[in-house]
Amino acid sequence: MASGGEVISNKQVLFKNFVEGFPKESDMVVKTSSISLKVEGSNAVVVKNLYLSCDPRMRHHMMKGKDPGFVSFKPGSPLEGFGVAKVVDSGHPEFKKGDLVWGTVGWEEYSVIKNPAESLFKIHHTDVPLSYYTGILGMPGLTAWAGLYEVCAPKKGECVYISAASGAVGQLVGQFAKLIGCYVVGSAGSKEKVEILKNKLGFDDAFNYKEEHDLDAALKRHFPEGIDIYFENVGGKMLDAVLLNMRLHGRIVVCGMISQYNLNQPEGVHNLMNIAYKRVHMMGLIVFDYFPQYSEFLEAVLPLIREGKIVYLEDIAEGLENAPAALVGLFSGRNVGKQVVVVARE
Amino acid sequence: MASGGEVISNKQVLFKNFVEGFPKESDMVVKTSSISLKVEGSNAVVVKNLYLSCDPRMRHHMMKGKDPGFVSFKPGSPLEGFGVAKVVDSGHPEFKKGDLVWGTVGWEEYSVIKNPAESLFKIHHTDVPLSYYTGILGMPGLTAWAGLYEVCAPKKGECVYISAASGAVGQLVGQFAKLIGCYVVGSAGSKEKVEILKNKLGFDDAFNYKEEHDLDAALKRHFPEGIDIYFENVGGKMLDAVLLNMRLHGRIVVCGMISQYNLNQPEGVHNLMNIAYKRVHMMGLIVFDYFPQYSEFLEAVLPLIREGKIVYLEDIAEGLENAPAALVGLFSGRNVGKQVVVVARE
């Protein structure tokens, strides 16, 4: 027990062991430990976690990393991911008690953040839902923004295809592309999601990939003249079909390949020679490269939210107890919109 | 018989029928037909073919095209490819008898070229071997030049890997990369070719991919810090191994995938998620996009040849009779250097 600090109980979602195949709820366990809410002689901060973000990328950290630079979750320790939190004590000059922040936190009620200046952004705008900082105003938003505008440089009238289109990133890519006058089609895995894409999110068209036995034919139906920009969220067979339908000088931004994360070996992609035939540019995106542009991004997107020009769908799970199911649900497509876990509302 | 024109015999390599799997000599047949050497009332030219180029891309034209824009060879007609030729009669104001040209011609002694301004370049520099216009000064040279300098923008000190490195394009990519101070490693399919890469072509290192049971390990041995630029000529398993070894912000230019052309279905490539992890740019190259820059290219490369700063290896087959074997040999790696067929020396 730390001397002098208030010690209270701390519910946590602990990582049990490295995962092969689809992650299961039983790969995690909810336990209660205790924590001192007082920072003792360091420049750490202690935060109270409010909203946690369920992200497909967390799957990577659930496996034993082969590369020395790869950081796996530690068995027996809480999972880590993006979240929105409130500072309850600070040893760092830039953070003070009561500050709202977003960044990397533990999956628990309270976290000690050792290098807050490196892992937390301060939240200055609270006229929008705080949970948005796990989504449209956080990592997924910046991913969509940078992937579309910075990497693909779309032009008015270009044809944009987005897989996993109702997800945390996809729904924004589509709306951002519509804002500059692109023709936008998305795919998702249920009738309900397809309706949302067309009727709530303003996509020009959408289809349920699970109902298409021939993805190539589905894409030819929706893009008779081909695809200029593909925002890749799923990989595998979908990428193979897209490669057959890219237009000359098309661009593919590889943001994620969620269909592949739980396979022992990713599926083979066969149609890569189309990259040459069509002079396609295929480019990798890791959002961390764009964190220095976060303020610029925020200034552009906040007005769009306030003016109702862009909407954001969230799928809210209540309480840490439900966090494992929420995370696992990403990989079966259970969530409709950005999957968030509410730990506490304030 | 055309009225008034001199009609002479014309040996031809005819395409027999569409090819599946590896092309065989028996997919072609050498026959003698006849041709009028006089252009009658059109702006065509008649050329005498001197050197023909054997190019992997010809394999594509040996299959029945699925796309409307795809041009297959016509069964019963001569194959077509790049060649060096001499004009013997011209109905076109820009070409006159005796002009040397390179461009698309038939696999035959004499060809009628209907739109010479669209398919032929005039040769103005004859102090270098004429056959070079099928190689270093023709399509493969421009491919290497544009693919390396224009697409990949290499910087001094970067690590460049080239597959099929002793081939028509690969040997030039390596030498061009050395000229700007890159570290260059190539792979090829025989001990002899590896020796040539190291001792004649100035590569920093080279290896025989056929002797490596683990391509990933071979690449890690040659590029302990990773690959900045990969010039892709082969595809399949090699690309998969390369993807595991790309450096952050690496570039892959897809020029060809010769290991895949004779398969009914190309091999699957599994490691594409590395494009995201490493923020790799993978870009397609079709040399025709760079034909407008041909003069600029020529002015840069001619002095390098004259000053001996760059060398070019050719594998010369004598006579049209040997053309089918020469073409087929590309796909088993029989050629050492650029495969040329001599039809006539002047």
Layout of helices and strands, plus pairs?
2 copies of one chain form a homodimer.
Chain A: E1 7-15, E2 28-36, E3 45-53, H1 58-61, E4 80-90, E5 100-106, E6 110-113, H2 116-119, E7 120-122, H3 139-152, E8 159-162, H4 170-179, E9 183-188, H5 191-199, E10 205-208, H6 215-222, E11 227-232, H7 237-243, E12 246-254, H8 274-277, E13 281-284, H9 294-306, E14 314-318, H10 323-329, E15 338-342
Model description:
- Two copies of one chain form a homodimer.
- With 346 residues, chain A is an alpha/beta fold.
- Chain A folds into two domains: 159 residues, Quinone Oxidoreductase, Chain A, domain 1; 150 residues, NAD(P)-binding Rossmann-like Domain (Rossmann fold, 3-Layer(aba) Sandwich).
- The first copy, chain A, is 23% helix and 27% strand.
- In chain A, helix 5 links the parallel strand 9 and strand 10.
- In chain A, helix 3 packs across helix 4.
- Chain A is globular and about 65 Å long.
- The model of chain A has no long low-confidence stretch (mean pLDDT 95).
- At the A-B interface, helix 8 and strand 13 of A face helix 8 and strand 13 of B.
